[in-house]
Amino acid sequence: MNSAEQNVDLKEIEHFASLAQTWWDPEGEFKTLHQINPLRLNYIEDQVGGLFGLDVLDLGCGGGVLSESMAKRQAQVTGIDMGAEQIQVAKLHALETQTTLDYQQTSAEQMALENPARFDLITCMEMLEHVPDPSSVIAACKHMLKPGGRLVVSTINRTFASRILMIEAAEKILKIVPKGTHQHAKFIRPSELLTWCDAQGLLCDDIKGVSFIPWIERLSLSRNVDVNYMLSLHLPKD
């Protein structure tokens, strides 16, 4: 695993920090995040058979939209992010909503050093494409999972379709994603992600695409993984 200092893109941190105050505005810069959150939450819960009582780590938690949702379903949630502003926003919102969970400003690699074999579930939602070495994050996840634990990842495929839809359309034309959020070269093909997971002994149980029709604001799971996709993996007990 890389050190925390090595596996951080400061420009990415600064970009999201500049938007932190709008994180919980359902009609603001992160409107699409709020729209996709129920789909992600239900997918995660289906994969683990219910969140009640699970020890959960949310990597790259940002302002805490998914973290709070899982905590409200009675999981014991820790949310981590390298952005100080995001973590502060997440903590303040949790206080306002009286939601009990733990937020920390740290990296996956540092968290792994301090929490070996701890978590029942780790979620990593569109964080991998924002770090210099995503394979290091996968290695950290494996180190933190209990035997039998589950990792759920969402990211973006590196295809022509993703360039058109996620950057040209979503950021520049429709403006439903903050401009400058994505870099096509950092998108990750499923084959690449699965190779990193295989190297850590993580077994893939499910892969789903996420279909989004912005003009009618419709989101659904799909077999098409050309743009957004989610993976569900587990660490074998043996």
UniProtKB/TrEMBL annotation:
Pathway: Cofactor biosynthesis; ubiquinone biosynthesis. It catalyses: a 3-(all-trans-polyprenyl)benzene-1,2-diol + S-adenosyl-L-methionine = a 2-methoxy-6-(all-trans-polyprenyl)phenol + S-adenosyl-L-homocysteine + H(+); a 3-demethylubiquinol + S-adenosyl-L-methionine = a ubiquinol + S-adenosyl-L-homocysteine + H(+). CDD domains: AdoMet_MTases. Its EC number is 2.1.1.222, 2.1.1.64. It is an enzyme of class 2 (transferase). GO terms for biological process: methylation. O-methyltransferase that catalyzes the 2 O-methylation steps in the ubiquinone biosynthetic pathway. This is Ubiquinone biosynthesis O-methyltransferase. It comes from Alginatibacterium sediminis.
